[in-house]
Structure formats: C-alpha cells, structure tokens
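ok, trying the design again with the full structure, not the truncated one.
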C-alpha cells in the first residue's frame, strides 16, 4: 500500500471517528432549539423558549450548585492526596512501590458500579455514616485523585531533582526550595490535574447515585431523572447542550497547561 493510500485511509478513519463522536453532540445542541416537546428529528421549527425555561428553573440551579460544591471538595481532596502520593512514589524507592502505584491508579480503571457499591457498603454498613454531600465528594475524590497523581508524577519525572538540589546547595531549606523552585515548576501540572478532576466529578453519575442521599441532586442526576418525564425533553436538551459547551473550557485549559508544562520540562 502506497504512502498516499495510507494517508487517505488514516484521514478517512479519523473523519469517521470524529463524526461518530461529534454528530450526536451537534444533534443535542440543535434539538435544544427544537419547538417539539419530545426528542423529534428533524426539527419542525426552532425556538429559544426552552433556554428561558432552563434559566428560570430552580431545580436546575440547585443541581448546578450541588455539582459545583461536590466538584470543588473532591478536587481539593484529590489535589492534596494526589500530590502527596506523586511525591512519595516519584521521589522515593521502597519495597512495594509498584504495587502501591497500581493501587493508586486502580480506582479509575474499575467499573463505576463497583466503586459505587463499595463506597455505599463502607459508608452505610461498615462505618455507619449517613449519606450526604460529603460522602459523594469523598467517593469522587478517589478517582479524581488519579488524574492529579498522573499529572504530578509525570512532571516530577521530567524535571528531575537537579533544580531542587541546586537550590539546597545554595543554602535554601526544604520549605523554601519547595516554595520557590518545586511548586512553580509543578504549578501547570497541578492546575491541569485540578481542571480534569473537577470535570470528572462534575460529570459522574453512577457513583453519585449510590452515595448521595435523597434531596442531594447533582446536574447529571437531574438529567437522568428528567429524561423520561413529559415535556421535559427540551429542557434536558438545553442542559446537555450547556454541559457540552462548558466541558470544552476545562479540557482546552488543561491541554494548554499540560503543553506549557511539557515545554517547561524541555528547557
């Protein structure tokens, strides 16, 4: 097969893959302006009244607030735990290090239903803790921690130990070295990891269903609950369209930050 044929095949495969992912998203965006009260296609007409209804919906606003609260708590916990684990596993050698590294990454690879059932059992049966927004945030932090860990440990490996050793050779103590040398070099990786962690928490539904009490409704849960309710399809489309557009921002920023971090590692 010639190189031209290979390029054409690769381009066709890429186009098909992108179309397979993004055409349904475009349909959701277009349907949010559909005059029909059901998931009808093609649209019989267009209107913006569903957007006005979504903006004035108190349950949507409360779900957004809950999702943001859970996401911020989970991200803060993930930043602390993920960074500490990255330093422990990236800078020190000890027996069982690879096993611990596997255990750290495992939560994001496990099926969500397994993680959800494990946490519900631990909270309700073993610990006797009542479900709340905090139980949701703790459960989210376990898989959010993985993206922070991966970002930080990769950055630590690229930067090596030379900058810190040079700082300490010049008389700086450990805290001063971390504040003036290590943290500035890690800042891009931490911000990228935090953005990705917040996005993961904001979109999670399975773990949330098992660890949230009645009355605590995140935005994905609100979409799930209202998907089949009469005349709610247009508003659900609006919320989904907003989520699609809003998801672009943290992904774009995390890519830019990761790119800046990589560039900094080659200097």
């Amino acid at each position: 097969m010639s190189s031209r044929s290979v390029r054409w095949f690769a381009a066709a495969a890429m186009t098909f893959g992108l179309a397979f992912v993004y055409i349904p998203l475009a349909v959701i965006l277009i349907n949010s302006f559909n005059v029909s009260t059901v998931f009808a296609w093609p649209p019989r007409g267009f209107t913006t009244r569903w957007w006005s209804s979504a903006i004035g919906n108190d349950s949507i606003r409360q779900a957004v607030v809950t999702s943001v609260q859970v996401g911020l708590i989970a991200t803060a916990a993930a930043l602390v735990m993920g960074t500490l684990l990255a330093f422990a596993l990236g800078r020190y050698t000890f027996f069982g290090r690879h096993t611990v590294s596997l255990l750290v990454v495992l939560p994001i690879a496990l099926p969500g239903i397994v993680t959800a059932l494990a946490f519900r059992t631990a909270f309700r049966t073993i610990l006797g803790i009542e479900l709340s927004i905090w139980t949701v945030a703790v459960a989210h932090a376990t898989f959010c921690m993985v993206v922070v860990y991966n970002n930080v440990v990769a950055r630590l490996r690229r930067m090596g130990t030379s900058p810190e050793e040079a700082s300490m050779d010049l008389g700086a103590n450990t805290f001063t070295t971390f504040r003036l040398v290590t943290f500035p070099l890690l800042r891009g990786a931490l911000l990228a990891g935090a953005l990705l962690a917040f996005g993961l928490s904001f979109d999670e539904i399975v773990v949330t269903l098992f660890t949230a009490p009645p009355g605590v409704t995140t935005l994905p849960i609100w979409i799930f609950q209202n998907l089949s309710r009469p005349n709610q399809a247009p508003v659900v489309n609006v919320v989904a369209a907003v989520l699609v557009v809003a998801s672009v921002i943290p992904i774009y920023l995390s890519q830019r930050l990761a790119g800046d971090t990589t560039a900094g590692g080659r200097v």
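Keeping the full-length input from now on. The chain is about 80% helix and 0% strand.
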